[in-house]
Every structure is written in C-alpha cells, then in structure tokens.
Write a structure and sequence with these properties.
- This protein is about 40% helix and about 25% strand.
- By secondary structure, it is an alpha/beta fold.
- The chain has a single domain, classed as P-loop containing nucleotide triphosphate hydrolases (Rossmann fold).
- A 6-stranded mixed beta sheet has the order 6-7-8-3-9-10, sandwiched between helices. A 4-stranded antiparallel beta sheet has the order 2-1-4-5, covered by helices on one side.
- β7, α9 and β8 form a beta-alpha-beta unit.
- α8 packs parallel to α9.
- The longest helix is centred in the last third of the chain and has 16 residues.
- The N terminus is likely disordered.
C-alpha cells in the first residue's frame, strides 16, 4: 500500500470514532497490542514474571509502578530490545515476539525511550530525519517534518543546534518528534516526565494527548501515577515484575491502595 503524503498517524489509523461506536454498542474494542504470559529474565533474576495485558486500537493505557517494578524491561521486550524468556506479544493480530527492533519500527511501533536517547552529536534536524530512516516517501516525510516543528516550535528555533546541547525538556521533545517521524500506529513512551520541570512536563503531556487524540494508540510508562491516570483511559499497576491491579483510570485514581502507594495519600 503506498504511503499517503498526509501524516500517517492521522491518515492510516482506524477512525477512533469507530472504536467509540463499538464501545457504545457494548462491543469489546479490538486489541492492537496483546501481551500474554510475558516473562523476562536477566541471568537468574526474573524482572518480568508472566504478565498479561492488552491495549485496544485508539486507546491510551498507562503502566504505573515504582522504580524496579519491571516497566522499562516490559517496553524493551515489546520492542525487541530484550528477548523474552517466555510468553507472546501480538500486534494487530500477528505474533511479533521474535521480530527484531527495525522490523517493528517498519510495522508502525515507535518507542520514546527512558532518558530520551537522542543522538547527541547530530543536530535537531538530523535527529528528526533519523526518525524517518525506514521511509522513502519524500513528500510525506517533508509534511511530517513540518508537522513536528509545528508541534514543537522550540525545536524549529534550534533546528541547526547539536542535540547534546539542548535542555532535558527540549531533548524529550526531540525524542517524541523523532518517534512520530516513523508514522507510528502504536506509540510507547517510557517515563517522559523524568527529570523535567513542572511547566515542561505540562507541555510534554499536552503534546502526547494531542498525538493520541488523532487516533495513535498509546502505552505510557510513568512514575507520576496521578498525571498518567488523569490522561489515560485505563491503567495497570506493576509491582516486582507482576501486574497486581488493572482498571479504568478513574477507578484506579480512586483506589485507596493506589492512592497510598503512588499518590502520597
């Protein structure tokens, strides 16, 4: 199928209104991402202990938990950066458990990693171009490039600046911009608020919300449980490599156990 010249996170996704109609009709939304029995081990240490969860098309889901709970390892397993010891990962109905990372990017899965992971010796413009490395649709790339700079005017002002000289918040913007240059259908974000000032966190989360509103399915890993649950549709609580709670976001925000453990109440 030829790529459209329009930003694909708008053009190629199922209309989220269809998912809403299904929900109103009582139908279960189709799972874009389905994880079953996922286990990841580092030597003799079980970092992820057989977890199960789903993310429906067009949905925003958060995975919350303390440091060391296994959240980042889970994202690494989903994106081919570590090999699961057991279990399966299905995307759009296909088993992708054993696929390498570059194949997953081509399928429409993008990761914004913990710590940004920008190419510090490349310019802002070059980092953004790297996000489209698996594409060859010249006009579509140009349109998406312009869209990234419209989302993040600060990056446009610094387009010729070396990425390593940007502030933490600017690097987070750059990491998100680079990810959406791959035209993702599924966007994975690992701790986007880490180390950022409150005003920058607000800007980053407003942008994530705007991207998700176009229909991009989003899985957010975040220590700031209140912020994550206020923004997402559903949530999973991860503790010591296991998922111990799952519910809609509003119910988790009201859950006394979640409030004590993650909201400081």
């Amino acid at each position: 199928m030829p790529l459209s010249s329009k930003p694909i996170w708008v053009a190629h996704l199922p209309d989220p209104r269809g998912d809403l109609a299904n929900a109103k009709a009582g139908a279960r939304p189709e799972a874009l991402l389905s994880v079953a029995g996922l286990r990841v081990a580092y030597g003799g240490i079980n970092a992820v202990k057989g977890i199960d969860f789903t993310v429906a098309a067009g949905e925003m889901v958060t995975l919350i938990g303390a440091n060391g709970a296994g959240k980042t390892t889970t994202l690494k397993a989903l994106t081919g950066l570590v090999r699961p010891a057991a279990g399966s990962v299905r995307y759009n109905g296909a088993d992708i458990t054993a696929l390498p990372s570059h194949r997953l990017v081509a399928l429409g899965i993008a990761l914004v990693p913990e710590g940004r992971g920008v190419f510090t010796r490349l310019t802002v413009e070059e980092n953004i171009a790297m996000g489209a490395y698996c594409r060859d649709d010249k006009w579509g790339i140009r349109a998406d490039h312009d869209h990234v700079f419209a989302l993040f005017p600060r990056l446009a002002e610094r387009r010729h600046q070396v990425a390593g000289t940007l502030s933490g918040g600017e690097q987070q913007m750059l990491a998100i911009g680079r990810a959406i240059m791959g035209r993702p259908r599924l966007l994975l974000l690992d701790e986007p608020s880490m180390g950022l000032a409150p005003l920058m966190v607000q800007k980053i989360f407003e942008t994530i919300r705007a991207i998700a509103a176009t229909g991009v399915t989003t899985l957010l890993v975040e220590q700031n449980a209140k912020l994550a649950l206020e923004m997402c549709d559903r949530g999973y609580v991860m503790e010591s490599g296991e998922i111990t709670l799952s519910d809609n976001a509003r119910a988790l925000l009201a859950n006394p156990r979640v409030r004590r453990a993650y909201l400081g109440e």
